[in-house]
Specification:
With 178 residues, the chain is an alpha/beta fold. The protein contains six helices and six strands; from the N terminus they run E-H-E-H-E-E-H-E-H-E-H-H. 44% of the residues lie in helices and 12% in strands. The strands form two sheets. It has a four-stranded parallel beta sheet with strand order 2-1-5-6, sandwiched between helices. Helix 4 crosses helix 6.
Length: 178
């Protein structure tokens, strides 16, 4: 097993990066988001289902804390990523540089829980070329918590406002509006 695990969002990117980085790197895809607000109560544990905010997945009494779950479609990918980790593995988070990508990297950290946080690197690149990838590996950066917070705020607002207003729009105006 390689001592480097690179995680990108898509399998297509993973394939390209494998060809650039070589055998010292396992390159895998998260297939997008690995955690989200619950889609339905069935996604929650029995204990979580009893929470007063379980239906929305937002604890409005506790600073609008989101209740995150690993969606069923992401479970097999998370399991695979965990199996590839060893205590001395360096994890390279290579999701997109936008707020969604930054949140994916943050959620991966929350789920994978690497024992050595100094073995976690955040890399970004703007083109999928060998030189851009190697440049990113040579210049890792910190996770941008501002982008993570921006994505969290957008997701919470979408759930609190959109999730509750959409049924009204469907009833009064037209089905499918959000």
């Amino acid at each position: 097993m390689a001592k480097n695990l690179v995680i990108v969002e898509s399998p297509t990117k993973a394939k390209m990066l494998r060809s650039f980085l070589g055998k010292d790197y396992d390159v895998e895809s998260s297939y997008g988001h690995v955690r989200d607000l619950p889609g339905k109560k069935a996604d929650l544990t029995p204990t979580q289902q009893k929470l007063p905010y379980a239906s929305l997945g937002i604890d409005v009494e506790n600073d609008f804390a989101p209740l995150y779950v690993v969606p069923p479609k992401a479970k097999k990918h998370v399991t695979k990523l965990k199996k590839l980790m060893e205590p001395d593995t360096t994890i390279w988070l290579a999701s997109d540089e936008d707020r969604e990508g930054e949140a994916i990297s943050w959620h991966l950290l929350q789920i994978l829980k690497p024992k050595k946080t100094n073995k976690v690197k955040r890399i970004v690149f703007h083109e999928i070329t060998k030189s851009a990838i190697l440049e990113a590996v040579d210049n890792p950066r910190e996770l941008d918590q501002h982008l993570v917070n921006a994505q969290t705020a957008r997701r919470v607002l979408d759930r609190l406002v959109g999730y509750t207003l959409s049924p009204l729009l469907w009833k009064k105006i037209r089905f499918g509006l959000s």
